[in-house]
Structure formats: C-alpha cells, structure tokens
Amino acid sequence: MNTLGKKGMPKEEIDNLAEYIMNFFGFNDYCIDNKLSPKDRDVFYMLEEEGLLKTTRDEVTLQKGKVWRIHYWILDSEKVYELSEEEEPEEPKQGEEGIYEELPEDIWERHNE
Fold first, then answer.
1. What ranges do the domains of the chain cover?
2. Edge-to-edge strand order for the sheet containing 30-32?
3. Which long-range contacts (CB under 8 A, 24 or more apart) does 43-48 make?
4. pLDDT tens for residues 39-95?
5. Which one, 27, 75, 86, 105, has the greatest CB density within 10 A?
6. Is 44 helix (H, G, I), strand (E, B) or coil?
7. Cβ-contact 55, 74 below 8 angstroms
8. What angle is formed at CA 74 by the lines to CA 72 and CA 76, rounded to 5 degrees?
9. Is the dihedral of CA 49, 59, 75, 16 positive or negative?
10. Model's pTM, two decimal places?
C-alpha cells in the first residue's frame, strides 16, 4: 500500500499482487528466474523498480567447460518491513470524491470567442 497504493493501485489489487508474489517465494527470499513466464517477469521488473525485488546470478561451469548462468530474484525483506511500518496512504476525505459532481454541466464546454 505504501508504494503502489500511492500510485493509485486499489487495495484489493495490491492484496492479490502480494499473494501472487508470495506464491513464487514461499518461505524463501529468492526464486529462480526461469520459473517465470514473460508476464510474471514484467511484474517482477515493476517491483524491482519500486525497490522491492533485486536480481543476482550465479555462474556454474559444466563438465565440458560451458558456463551456465542462473538468474535469481531476491525479495528485499528489509525494504518490505520498512515500508510496512510507514503510514498507509490517506483515504479521500468525506465529500472530496464528489467535488466535480457539484460543478454545473456547462463548465466542461469550451467556449470559442
């Protein structure tokens, strides 16, 4: 809520996203990139931009000398805890959401002079 909620994402979508992400990580703080579909990866990149995920990789040399790279996504638990302690975004005050309904209809018309 303290990151995506401030950008306009509704609480219900944020809750669904949190559950979706935790299904990848389970009880770990990392998951392997090749488990992800392209759509999943797009979500992970978005969360990386928000500072909630990081990436790393390992290189393993196979018997024939070929290098195999394994890419990981790491959940930044410290950042998640830090953000969870911040205040939640304020809900609109009573009446703020209907402010435009009080304006007369002709206010939206463009007058050419």
1. 5-89
2. 30-32, 67-75, 53-61
3. 43/17, 44/73, 47/21, 48/73
4. 999 989 988 988 889 999 999 898 888 998 999 999 888 887 887 776 655 555 555
5. 75
6. helix
7. yes
8. 170
9. positive
10. 0.62
